[in-house]
Design a protein that fits this description.
The protein has a three-stranded antiparallel sheet with strand order 2-1-3. 52% of the residues lie in helices and 17% in strands. The protein contains eight helices and three strands. Helix 3 crosses helix 4 and helix 7 packs antiparallel against helix 8. It is of the alpha+beta class and 185 residues long.
Length: 185
């Protein structure tokens, strides 16, 4: 994933109402249940089916560091899907999404104006329509650049044009470099 996709994933994880299982055995049992079998779990993690069975029976308690990270990532990606879905639905219909970033914004503006492209640190709450478009883009496999375009359009509307009340002659807002990005909904 890109910067925007990773930010959406972190925002999803903030919605969790319970922590993920702590032990490797509990994590493996959760994955086996979600993927409906040890073979699918083994293929996902890149280990043998027998290794998965040993973790399920708590015969192996401490995974190698690379397997431990893959295991945690796989569990986090599937943890509490209804909670994630409910929070995304709320953001896409009523709540919107807050984007905090430090990025270089470039756009067409008269030379010498204060609107000249530069690094800005912005925290902007985008309307629900932009949240819905971001989720739809992520779910359809859009690139990071396409999702940046959605956020840039939202920034143009909310921040640079003051919610549409200020016609500044901005024809296009583009996010060029992102140093930091945090999403919350």
């Amino acid at each position: 994933m890109g910067i925007i996709g990773d930010g959406l994933e972190r925002a999803d994880q903030e919605a969790f109402t319970r922590p993920i299982p702590k032990s490797a055995g509990a994590q493996m049992r959760y994955l086996v249940k979600q993927l409906k079998g040890t073979r699918a779990t083994a293929e996902l993690l890149g280990v043998s089916q027998r290794t998965v069975e040993r973790y399920v029976k708590d015969q192996i308690r401490r995974p190698r560091s690379d397997l431990a990270q893959r295991l945690v990532d796989a569990v986090r990606a599937r943890w509490q899907p209804q909670v994630r879905k409910r929070r995304q639905q709320q953001a896409a219909t009523t709540g919107g999404i807050t984007v905090e970033t430090r990025a270089r914004f470039g756009y067409t503006a008269p030379i010498g104006t204060t609107d000249d492209g530069r690094f800005r640190r912005l925290t902007v709450h985008l309307p629900p329509d932009y949240a819905r478009r971001l989720f739809d883009a992520r779910d359809s496999g859009a690139s990071d650049q396409q999702m940046r375009g959605i956020i840039a359009e939202g920034f143009k509307y909310v921040y640079f044009q003051d919610g549409g009340s200020r016609a500044t002659g901005l024809s296009d807002v583009e996010i060029n470099d992102i140093d930091y990005l945090d999403l919350d909904y």
